Amino acid sequence: GPLRAPLVVVVIARLQDHFKVPHSEQRITAGCAAHGVLLAAYALGIGAVWRTGELSYAPQVAKGFGLEAGEEVLGFLYLGTPLNPPREAPKVDVGGFVSEWQG
């Protein structure tokens, strides 16, 4: 639940009509900012998890945060002191995700 960490950062995208920057890119930019917070927290030894789920998309949550038209919750960053050391990430074969461009 929302009380899992001493600090919860709500990630909100404010989408604005712009002829050069579509809404999809504005969402991605907000997501990149959230990812930067996670990386900074990890570098400082702070535990950080990005969660989404039904609360991210619930109209009553948006209303509770006072969001206006064009604003949307992208997720919640839970920050705090980790109880356990971080698990080692599994090794991934990048061959399925990366290819050499032959131009």
TrEMBL record:
**Residues in domain Nitroreductase?**
4-80
A molecular function (GO) held by this record is:
oxidoreductase activity
Xref: Gene3D superfamilies:
NADH Oxidase
**From which domain of life does this come?**
Bacteria
Q: What SUPFAM superfamilies would the database entry show?
A: FMN-dependent nitroreductase-like
What protein is this chain from? Nitroreductase family protein
Q: Please give the organism.
A: Pseudomonas savastanoi pv. glycinea str. race 4
